[in-house]
Amino acid sequence: MHPSSPDQPLPQDPKIEGSGASRKFDEQAMGQAFPRLLDAISDAVVVADSRGNTVAANRRFLETFGLDGKAIIGRPCPLSSTCITSTGPTPHTACIACEIATTKQARRALQVVPDVTGRQRRWEATLNPVLNDEGQVHLVVEVWRDVTDRTQLEAQLSHSERLASLGMLAAGVAHEVNNPLASVLAGVESLQRWLGRVTLPPEEHADASEVLSLLEQETRRCRETTDKLLLLGQPYATKPVWVDLNRAARDTLALLSFATRRQRVLVRAELAEDLPQLWGREGAVRGVLMNLCMNAVQAMANGGQLTVRTLRLGEDRVLLEIEDDGPGIAPDHLNRSWDPFFTTKPVGQGTGLGLSITQRIVSSHGGRIRVTSEPGKGARFTVTLPTQGSGGESV
Protein backbone atom coordinates (compact mmCIF):
# COMPACT_ATOMS: atom_id res chain seq x y z
CA MET A 1 0.00 0.00 0.00
CA HIS A 2 1.18 3.43 -0.89
CA PRO A 3 2.41 5.37 2.15
CA SER A 4 0.04 8.25 1.32
CA SER A 5 -3.03 5.99 1.40
CA PRO A 6 -5.63 7.19 3.94
CA ASP A 7 -6.05 3.59 5.14
CA GLN A 8 -2.53 3.60 6.58
CA PRO A 9 -1.68 6.28 9.26
CA LEU A 10 1.58 8.10 8.84
CA PRO A 11 4.20 7.69 11.58
CA GLN A 12 4.76 10.85 13.68
CA ASP A 13 8.05 12.60 13.07
CA PRO A 14 9.45 14.82 15.86
CA LYS A 15 10.42 17.33 13.20
CA ILE A 16 6.85 17.63 11.87
CA GLU A 17 5.26 20.85 13.19
CA GLY A 18 2.44 20.30 15.63
CA SER A 19 3.53 16.87 16.87
CA GLY A 20 3.70 16.24 20.61
CA ALA A 21 7.39 15.45 20.48
CA SER A 22 8.03 18.68 18.62
CA ARG A 23 6.11 20.73 21.16
CA LYS A 24 8.00 19.06 23.99
CA PHE A 25 11.29 19.73 22.25
CA ASP A 26 10.37 23.39 21.60
CA GLU A 27 9.30 23.94 25.20
CA GLN A 28 12.50 22.41 26.47
CA ALA A 29 14.65 24.47 24.09
CA MET A 30 12.72 27.63 24.94
CA GLY A 31 13.12 26.96 28.65
CA GLN A 32 16.87 26.68 28.19
CA ALA A 33 17.06 29.79 25.96
CA PHE A 34 14.74 31.97 28.07
CA PRO A 35 17.41 33.26 30.51
CA ARG A 36 19.74 34.06 27.63
CA LEU A 37 16.95 35.85 25.78
CA LEU A 38 16.26 37.99 28.84
CA ASP A 39 19.94 38.80 29.28
CA ALA A 40 20.17 39.82 25.61
CA ILE A 41 17.71 42.67 26.23
CA SER A 42 19.50 45.94 26.92
CA ASP A 43 16.69 47.28 29.13
CA ALA A 44 16.10 46.12 32.70
CA VAL A 45 13.46 43.36 32.68
CA VAL A 46 11.73 41.67 35.62
CA VAL A 47 8.86 39.19 35.48
CA ALA A 48 6.42 38.95 38.40
CA ASP A 49 3.46 36.67 39.05
CA SER A 50 -0.06 37.83 39.85
CA ARG A 51 0.81 38.14 43.56
CA GLY A 52 3.78 40.39 42.84
CA ASN A 53 6.48 37.78 43.45
CA THR A 54 9.54 37.76 41.21
CA VAL A 55 9.70 34.95 38.66
CA ALA A 56 12.69 36.06 36.59
CA ALA A 57 14.97 39.05 36.00
CA ASN A 58 17.67 39.73 33.44
CA ARG A 59 21.28 40.66 34.12
CA ARG A 60 20.70 44.33 33.32
CA PHE A 61 18.00 44.54 36.01
CA LEU A 62 20.16 42.86 38.63
CA GLU A 63 23.26 44.95 37.89
CA THR A 64 21.34 48.22 37.72
CA PHE A 65 19.66 47.82 41.09
CA GLY A 66 22.42 45.79 42.79
CA LEU A 67 20.35 42.66 43.37
CA ASP A 68 21.13 38.95 43.79
CA GLY A 69 19.35 36.96 41.09
CA LYS A 70 18.86 33.86 43.24
CA ALA A 71 17.76 35.80 46.31
CA ILE A 72 14.91 37.68 44.66
CA ILE A 73 13.25 34.70 42.92
CA GLY A 74 9.98 33.86 44.65
CA ARG A 75 10.12 37.04 46.72
CA PRO A 76 8.18 40.29 46.22
CA CYS A 77 9.36 42.38 43.28
CA PRO A 78 12.03 44.80 44.59
CA LEU A 79 10.42 47.72 42.80
CA SER A 80 6.90 47.09 44.11
CA SER A 81 7.50 45.58 47.55
CA THR A 82 5.78 48.45 49.34
CA CYS A 83 2.36 47.22 48.29
CA ILE A 84 2.89 43.50 48.96
CA THR A 85 1.79 41.82 52.18
CA SER A 86 1.80 38.20 53.30
CA THR A 87 -1.71 37.79 51.88
CA GLY A 88 -1.06 39.58 48.61
CA PRO A 89 -1.37 43.11 47.25
CA THR A 90 -3.10 45.63 49.47
CA PRO A 91 -5.99 47.38 47.70
CA HIS A 92 -5.15 50.96 48.66
CA THR A 93 -1.41 51.07 47.96
CA ALA A 94 -1.18 48.80 44.95
CA CYS A 95 1.59 49.59 42.49
CA ILE A 96 1.15 49.54 38.74
CA ALA A 97 2.11 45.87 38.42
CA CYS A 98 -0.49 44.87 41.01
CA GLU A 99 -3.11 47.01 39.29
CA ILE A 100 -2.43 45.20 36.03
CA ALA A 101 -3.09 41.88 37.78
CA THR A 102 -6.65 43.15 38.24
CA THR A 103 -7.27 45.36 35.23
CA LYS A 104 -5.45 43.11 32.70
CA GLN A 105 -4.47 46.27 30.80
CA ALA A 106 -0.91 47.15 29.78
CA ARG A 107 0.48 50.32 31.35
CA ARG A 108 3.33 52.73 30.76
CA ALA A 109 4.60 55.13 33.37
CA LEU A 110 7.57 57.28 34.33
CA GLN A 111 9.21 56.39 37.64
CA VAL A 112 12.10 57.91 39.59
CA VAL A 113 14.06 55.09 41.24
CA PRO A 114 17.67 55.13 42.50
CA ASP A 115 20.17 52.80 40.84
CA VAL A 116 22.84 50.72 42.55
CA THR A 117 24.97 53.85 43.17
CA GLY A 118 22.10 55.59 44.93
CA ARG A 119 21.72 58.16 42.16
CA GLN A 120 18.13 59.02 41.31
CA ARG A 121 17.38 57.92 37.77
CA ARG A 122 14.30 58.46 35.62
CA TRP A 123 12.79 55.30 34.15
CA GLU A 124 10.13 54.62 31.56
CA ALA A 125 8.41 51.47 32.80
CA THR A 126 6.33 49.40 30.38
CA LEU A 127 4.26 46.70 32.05
CA ASN A 128 2.38 44.04 30.09
CA PRO A 129 0.13 41.25 31.44
CA VAL A 130 0.49 37.62 30.32
CA LEU A 131 -2.84 35.77 30.48
CA ASN A 132 -3.34 32.04 31.11
CA ASP A 133 -5.85 29.77 29.38
CA GLU A 134 -8.62 30.96 31.72
CA GLY A 135 -8.01 34.58 30.76
CA GLN A 136 -6.54 35.51 34.12
CA VAL A 137 -3.28 37.37 34.61
CA HIS A 138 -0.57 34.79 35.10
CA LEU A 139 2.53 37.00 34.81
CA VAL A 140 3.40 40.67 34.51
CA VAL A 141 6.43 41.55 32.38
CA GLU A 142 8.08 44.83 33.41
CA VAL A 143 10.56 46.54 31.09
CA TRP A 144 12.46 49.42 32.69
CA ARG A 145 14.22 51.78 30.30
CA ASP A 146 16.61 54.42 31.66
CA VAL A 147 15.51 57.72 30.11
CA THR A 148 17.48 60.02 32.44
CA ASP A 149 19.91 61.21 29.76
CA ARG A 150 17.14 61.51 27.18
CA THR A 151 15.02 63.56 29.58
CA GLN A 152 17.94 65.86 30.34
CA LEU A 153 18.67 66.22 26.63
CA GLU A 154 15.04 67.13 25.93
CA ALA A 155 15.11 69.67 28.76
CA GLN A 156 18.35 71.16 27.42
CA LEU A 157 16.95 71.36 23.90
CA SER A 158 13.84 73.05 25.25
CA HIS A 159 15.99 75.49 27.20
CA SER A 160 18.10 76.16 24.11
CA GLU A 161 14.96 76.92 22.10
CA ARG A 162 13.79 79.30 24.83
CA LEU A 163 17.16 81.06 24.76
CA ALA A 164 16.92 81.45 20.98
CA SER A 165 13.39 82.84 21.33
CA LEU A 166 14.59 85.14 24.09
CA GLY A 167 17.36 86.44 21.81
CA MET A 168 14.81 87.21 19.10
CA LEU A 169 12.55 88.86 21.66
CA ALA A 170 15.42 90.98 23.03
CA ALA A 171 16.32 92.12 19.53
CA GLY A 172 12.69 93.01 18.84
CA VAL A 173 12.36 94.92 22.12
CA ALA A 174 15.62 96.75 21.43
CA HIS A 175 14.34 97.77 18.01
CA GLU A 176 11.06 99.05 19.46
CA VAL A 177 12.80 100.90 22.30
CA ASN A 178 15.13 102.64 19.86
CA ASN A 179 12.23 104.54 18.30
CA PRO A 180 11.09 106.39 21.47
CA LEU A 181 14.74 106.87 22.48
CA ALA A 182 15.34 108.62 19.17
CA SER A 183 12.37 110.91 19.90
CA VAL A 184 13.68 111.65 23.40
CA LEU A 185 17.12 112.43 22.02
CA ALA A 186 15.64 114.73 19.38
CA GLY A 187 13.65 116.53 22.09
CA VAL A 188 16.75 116.98 24.25
CA GLU A 189 18.70 118.42 21.33
CA SER A 190 15.79 120.78 20.56
CA LEU A 191 15.75 121.96 24.18
CA GLN A 192 19.50 122.53 24.07
CA ARG A 193 19.09 124.74 20.99
CA TRP A 194 16.24 126.60 22.68
CA LEU A 195 18.39 127.10 25.78
CA GLY A 196 21.02 128.75 23.62
CA ARG A 197 18.47 131.29 22.31
CA VAL A 198 16.86 132.39 25.57
CA THR A 199 18.23 134.55 28.34
CA LEU A 200 18.22 133.05 31.82
CA PRO A 201 20.02 133.89 35.03
CA PRO A 202 23.48 132.32 34.98
CA GLU A 203 22.71 129.77 37.74
CA GLU A 204 19.45 128.62 36.13
CA HIS A 205 21.12 128.43 32.71
CA ALA A 206 23.91 126.27 34.14
CA ASP A 207 21.45 123.97 35.93
CA ALA A 208 19.28 123.55 32.83
CA SER A 209 22.33 122.92 30.65
CA GLU A 210 23.62 120.28 33.11
CA VAL A 211 20.26 118.49 33.24
CA LEU A 212 19.95 118.44 29.45
CA SER A 213 23.51 117.17 29.06
CA LEU A 214 22.80 114.39 31.55
CA LEU A 215 19.59 113.46 29.72
CA GLU A 216 21.45 113.34 26.41
CA GLN A 217 24.24 111.23 27.89
CA GLU A 218 21.88 108.69 29.47
CA THR A 219 19.65 108.51 26.37
CA ARG A 220 22.66 107.80 24.17
CA ARG A 221 23.77 105.19 26.69
CA CYS A 222 20.38 103.49 26.40
CA ARG A 223 20.64 103.55 22.61
CA GLU A 224 24.11 101.99 22.76
CA THR A 225 22.75 99.20 24.94
CA THR A 226 19.88 98.48 22.57
CA ASP A 227 22.28 98.56 19.61
CA LYS A 228 24.43 95.95 21.37
CA LEU A 229 21.36 93.78 21.96
CA LEU A 230 20.49 94.06 18.28
CA LEU A 231 24.00 92.95 17.30
CA LEU A 232 23.93 90.09 19.81
CA GLY A 233 20.45 88.95 18.83
CA GLN A 234 20.94 89.04 15.08
CA PRO A 235 21.14 85.66 13.31
CA TYR A 236 24.57 84.36 12.34
CA ALA A 237 23.55 84.31 8.68
CA THR A 238 24.33 88.01 8.26
CA LYS A 239 26.98 88.97 5.74
CA PRO A 240 30.60 89.24 6.89
CA VAL A 241 31.96 92.70 7.67
CA TRP A 242 35.09 94.16 9.20
CA VAL A 243 34.76 93.51 12.94
CA ASP A 244 36.46 95.59 15.62
CA LEU A 245 37.25 92.90 18.20
CA ASN A 246 38.16 95.44 20.88
CA ARG A 247 34.85 97.23 20.50
CA ALA A 248 32.96 93.93 20.60
CA ALA A 249 34.81 93.03 23.82
CA ARG A 250 33.96 96.39 25.43
CA ASP A 251 30.30 96.08 24.42
CA THR A 252 30.10 92.53 25.81
CA LEU A 253 31.61 93.58 29.13
CA ALA A 254 29.18 96.51 29.26
CA LEU A 255 26.23 94.16 28.80
CA LEU A 256 27.60 91.93 31.57
CA SER A 257 28.31 94.80 33.95
CA PHE A 258 25.24 94.11 36.08
CA ALA A 259 26.09 90.40 36.43
CA THR A 260 29.72 91.13 37.28
CA ARG A 261 28.76 93.71 39.92
CA ARG A 262 26.19 91.39 41.46
CA GLN A 263 28.70 88.53 41.75
CA ARG A 264 31.55 90.81 42.86
CA VAL A 265 33.63 89.98 39.80
CA LEU A 266 36.44 92.42 38.99
CA VAL A 267 36.80 92.97 35.24
CA ARG A 268 40.12 93.68 33.54
CA ALA A 269 40.19 94.59 29.86
CA GLU A 270 43.71 94.32 28.40
CA LEU A 271 43.01 95.30 24.83
CA ALA A 272 45.83 95.87 22.33
CA GLU A 273 45.71 99.35 20.80
CA ASP A 274 47.21 98.22 17.49
CA LEU A 275 44.72 95.39 16.98
CA PRO A 276 43.64 95.09 13.32
CA GLN A 277 40.03 94.47 12.39
CA LEU A 278 39.05 90.98 11.26
CA TRP A 279 36.77 89.82 8.47
CA GLY A 280 33.82 87.92 9.92
CA ARG A 281 30.19 87.82 10.96
CA GLU A 282 29.85 90.36 13.72
CA GLY A 283 26.91 88.69 15.47
CA ALA A 284 28.77 85.38 15.57
CA VAL A 285 31.98 86.95 16.90
CA ARG A 286 30.03 88.78 19.59
CA GLY A 287 28.29 85.49 20.42
CA VAL A 288 31.69 83.88 21.00
CA LEU A 289 32.67 86.69 23.37
CA MET A 290 29.36 86.51 25.24
CA ASN A 291 29.48 82.71 25.64
CA LEU A 292 33.04 82.67 26.96
CA CYS A 293 32.57 85.67 29.26
CA MET A 294 29.25 84.35 30.60
CA ASN A 295 30.84 80.97 31.36
CA ALA A 296 33.66 82.72 33.21
CA VAL A 297 31.30 84.88 35.25
CA GLN A 298 29.07 81.93 36.14
CA ALA A 299 32.13 79.96 37.26
CA MET A 300 32.94 82.66 39.85
CA ALA A 301 29.80 82.51 41.96
CA ASN A 302 31.67 83.83 44.99
CA GLY A 303 33.53 86.60 43.19
CA GLY A 304 36.84 86.73 41.38
CA GLN A 305 38.53 88.36 38.43
CA LEU A 306 37.62 88.18 34.75
CA THR A 307 40.35 89.15 32.30
CA VAL A 308 39.62 89.80 28.62
CA ARG A 309 42.79 90.17 26.59
CA THR A 310 43.46 90.85 22.90
CA LEU A 311 46.82 90.71 21.14
CA ARG A 312 48.13 91.17 17.64
CA LEU A 313 49.88 88.10 16.24
CA GLY A 314 51.91 89.28 13.28
CA GLU A 315 50.20 90.93 10.34
CA ASP A 316 47.33 88.53 9.74
CA ARG A 317 46.20 87.03 13.04
CA VAL A 318 44.68 88.23 16.32
CA LEU A 319 44.39 86.55 19.70
CA LEU A 320 41.55 86.68 22.20
CA GLU A 321 41.89 85.33 25.75
CA ILE A 322 39.14 84.97 28.34
CA GLU A 323 40.56 84.11 31.75
CA ASP A 324 38.94 83.60 35.15
CA ASP A 325 40.20 82.56 38.57
CA GLY A 326 37.25 80.34 39.44
CA PRO A 327 37.38 76.67 40.50
CA GLY A 328 38.69 75.52 37.11
CA ILE A 329 37.62 72.52 35.03
CA ALA A 330 38.01 68.96 36.27
CA PRO A 331 40.55 66.94 34.21
CA ASP A 332 37.95 64.34 33.19
CA HIS A 333 35.67 67.14 31.93
CA LEU A 334 38.34 69.07 30.04
CA ASN A 335 38.26 67.01 26.83
CA ARG A 336 34.45 66.81 26.89
CA SER A 337 33.99 70.58 27.11
CA TRP A 338 33.36 70.82 23.36
CA ASP A 339 30.83 67.95 23.21
CA PRO A 340 27.30 69.10 22.34
CA PHE A 341 24.92 69.02 25.33
CA PHE A 342 27.71 68.23 27.81
CA THR A 343 27.32 70.48 30.83
CA THR A 344 28.02 70.30 34.54
CA LYS A 345 25.37 72.93 35.27
CA PRO A 346 21.89 72.03 36.52
CA VAL A 347 19.11 71.85 33.95
CA GLY A 348 17.82 75.35 33.34
CA GLN A 349 21.20 76.98 33.91
CA GLY A 350 23.01 75.67 30.89
CA THR A 351 22.34 73.77 27.68
CA GLY A 352 25.78 72.36 27.01
CA LEU A 353 25.67 73.99 23.59
CA GLY A 354 27.61 77.20 24.25
CA LEU A 355 31.15 75.86 23.85
CA SER A 356 30.15 73.53 21.02
CA ILE A 357 28.65 76.44 19.07
CA THR A 358 31.62 78.64 19.97
CA GLN A 359 34.06 76.08 18.58
CA ARG A 360 32.02 75.79 15.38
CA ILE A 361 31.97 79.56 14.89
CA VAL A 362 35.71 79.90 15.49
CA SER A 363 36.47 77.03 13.09
CA SER A 364 34.20 78.49 10.41
CA HIS A 365 36.21 81.73 10.61
CA GLY A 366 39.43 79.78 10.07
CA GLY A 367 40.49 80.09 13.71
CA ARG A 368 41.31 77.81 16.62
CA ILE A 369 40.18 77.67 20.24
CA ARG A 370 41.74 75.81 23.14
CA VAL A 371 41.29 75.70 26.90
CA THR A 372 43.78 75.26 29.71
CA SER A 373 42.77 74.77 33.30
CA GLU A 374 43.88 73.42 36.63
CA PRO A 375 41.44 72.60 39.44
CA GLY A 376 41.31 75.52 41.84
CA LYS A 377 43.26 77.83 39.53
CA GLY A 378 40.63 78.97 37.05
CA ALA A 379 40.40 78.46 33.31
CA ARG A 380 41.73 80.23 30.23
CA PHE A 381 40.15 80.08 26.78
CA THR A 382 42.46 81.14 23.95
CA VAL A 383 41.04 81.99 20.52
CA THR A 384 43.20 82.77 17.48
CA LEU A 385 41.54 84.21 14.39
CA PRO A 386 42.83 85.28 10.97
CA THR A 387 42.18 88.88 10.07
CA GLN A 388 41.34 87.96 6.46
CA GLY A 389 39.83 84.51 6.70
CA SER A 390 36.68 82.99 5.25
CA GLY A 391 34.45 85.42 7.14
CA GLY A 392 32.49 82.59 8.73
CA GLU A 393 30.77 81.65 5.49
CA SER A 394 29.74 78.23 6.90
CA VAL A 395 28.17 79.59 10.12
Folded structure, characterized:
The protein is an alpha+beta fold and 395 residues long. It is 44% helix and 23% strand. It is built from eleven helices and 14 strands. The chain has a five-stranded antiparallel β-sheet with strand order 2-1-7-6-5. Strands 9-11-12-14-13 form a five-stranded mixed β-sheet. A two-stranded antiparallel sheet has the order 3-4. A hairpin with a 3-residue loop joins strand 11 and strand 12. Helix 5 (148-197) runs antiparallel to helix 6. It is elongated, with a radius of gyration of 35 Å. Mean pLDDT is 75; it is low at 1-18, 81-93 and 346-353.
Detail the topology: elements first, then pairings.
Blueprint: H1 20-40, E1 44-49, E2 54-57, H2 59-65, H3 69-72, E3 84-85, E4 88-89, H4 96-103, E5 107-114, E6 120-131, E7 137-146, H5 148-197, H6 202-233, E8 241-243, H7 245-255, H8 257-262, E9 265-271, E10 278-280, H9 282-299, E11 304-313, E12 317-324, H10 331-334, H11 354-364, E13 368-373, E14 379-386
Parallel strand pairs: 9-11
Antiparallel strand pairs: 1-2, 1-7, 3-4, 5-6, 6-7, 8-10, 11-12, 12-14, 13-14
Protein name: histidine kinase
Pfam family, one: HisKA
Organism: Eiseniibacteriota bacterium
